[in-house]
Amino acid sequence: MTVGSVFSNGGGTIEEVNLAEVLEELFMVLTDKEKEVIVKRFSLDSKPRQTLESIGRKFSVTRERVRQIEKIALGKLKRTAKNTKLNLANGLATAMIRANGGIMLEEEVISGVLNKIAKPGEVDRYIISLALSVNEDLSQNNKVNLYHTFWHLKGISLSDIEKVLKVAKSELKEKKDTIAEMKLVRDVQSVLKEKGDNFTEEFIGAALKVDKMMKSIDSGYGLMSWRHVNPKSIRDKAYIVLKRTSRPLHFIEIANKITEAGFDKKIVTVQAVHNELIRCNKFVLVGRGLYALSEWGYSEGTVADIIESILEKKGQMTKKEIIESVLKQRQVKKGTISLNLQKKPCFVRVGRATYELDKSKN
Asked: Pick from 138, 124, 24: which is nearest to 90 by CA?
C-alpha cells in the first residue's frame, strides 16, 4: 500500500473525514466508564492527559484497575475501528511509516495525517493518537526514558533499532564532534553490513531521530551531553552562534541570534550576553563591541599588545606588514594601528617605514 492509495476508498476520502463524528460512532461500543477513561487518557476533552492514579481516585479504584479498563476499551475500539472511517487515518499513518523506513516519531505521524484533512478539528491530533493505539499494523515504543515517542511497523524489531543507535553513538563518541546526517547514516550502514545486518538508509535515518541521547543540529547529529549540541548556559549559546556564523559579531547581534535560534524558552538580555563574553576566555574582543572565538587564532589584548606580540615573533617588519598582521587579529581602522606604532616608545623605527621591538623602552 502506498501513501497515495489510502487517500480514498469506497467509504470516503481522508480529506473529507470528520474525526470527531467518527469518534462518537466508535464510542458506541464502550461503556460510560470505558469512554471516560479513554477520553481522559488521550486528552479527548482538550485537557491535559490524566494519570492512571488520578482517574482511579475519581472512580475509587486502583491504578491497575484503570489500566485494565483502558486495555479492554482499546481492544473493543481496535476490533471496531477497521469498519469505520478511522481506518482511513490509520491506513495513511501506516503507509507514511512504511515509506519512512518503518519507523516514525509520533508527532511527525500526527502532523502528516492532519495535513491531509481539509478542516482539522481542535481535538483531531488526540483522536489520531488514539487511532494509532488501535492500529493493528503498528507498535509503539515503551522505553520513554530512552526514546522519543515513536511508532514502528510490527515487523520491525526493536533490537534492530537499538543496533543502529549503538553504532551511531559509538561513531559520534569516536569523532567527538557532530557528523552530517547522511554521512552518519552511511557510516552506520557500513559498520552493520560488515556484521551481517543489511539496513536501508531510510530505516537508519528514521532510527536516529528517536534516541533522546542524540540531537540533530545544523552541522549534523551530535550527543546531547555535548554543550555545543545541547547548550546549557548563555556562554554555550554564544559559542554556538559564533561557531555557526564563522566570523566576529557585535555583542548585540550575538544576543539577537541566541534569541532567534530558540535553544530553549529562556529569555536572554543583551547585558547578560555581554557580561559572559567579557568574562570567558573563549571569546576575544576584536573591535568596538565585536567578539570572536579565541580558537580562531585571535589573541587577547589591545592593538598595541597585538603589535608587540607580532614584532616579538617576527622581528623587523614594514609598516604595511604590521598593519596586515594586526588586521588578521582585530577589526580596526588602519589609522588606529599607525597611531599605536607612533605613540609607544618600544616600537622603534629602524628604516623607511620599518619597525622592530625594543622592550627596554617599554
From this structure: 138
